């Protein structure tokens, strides 16, 4: 039988294993360095993981079923797992800095 003092220690060690990121499309919102309302910036490694290229059009989904379409640019100063967007895009998506959004490649239906 485990005592009350050893049980939390065992649980803590089982939960600290590094877990693989479940969904690479989910990124944290960060402040943009440019002021373009149609451009988001991603780290180059994140772009490769999502199979996106510079100039690709992406669909970004925010909160409360809000979404918008933007163009992707590479930004090495942007941390992996984050996306940089300006205030106008964040307002359209109803998100704030630090919120999580999902980003998907936009396939135009013509």
TrEMBL record:
Region (Disordered): 1-25
Gene3D superfamilies documented for this protein: 2.40.40.20
The organism's place on the tree of life at top rank: Eukaryota
InterPro entries referenced in this protein's UniProt entry, alphabetically: Asp_de-COase-like_dom_sf, CDC4_N-term_subdom
CDC48 N-terminal subdomain domain ranges (all copies): 26-108
Residues spanning the signal sequence: none
Protein name, per record: CDC48 N-terminal subdomain domain-containing protein
Organism this protein belongs to: Prymnesium polylepis
């Amino acid at each position: 039988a485990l005592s009350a003092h050893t049980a939390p220690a065992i649980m803590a060690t089982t939960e600290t294993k590094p877990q693989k990121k479940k969904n690479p499309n989910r990124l944290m919102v960060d402040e943009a360095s440019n002021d373009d309302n149609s451009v988001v910036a991603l780290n180059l490694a994140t772009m490769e993981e999502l199979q996106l290229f510079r100039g690709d059009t992406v669909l970004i989904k925010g909160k409360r079923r809000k979404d918008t379409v933007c163009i992707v640019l590479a930004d090495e100063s942007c941390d992996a797992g984050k996306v940089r967007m300006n205030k106008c895009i964040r307002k359209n998506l109803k998100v704030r800095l630090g919120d999580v959004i999902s980003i998907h490649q936009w396939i135009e239906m013509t």
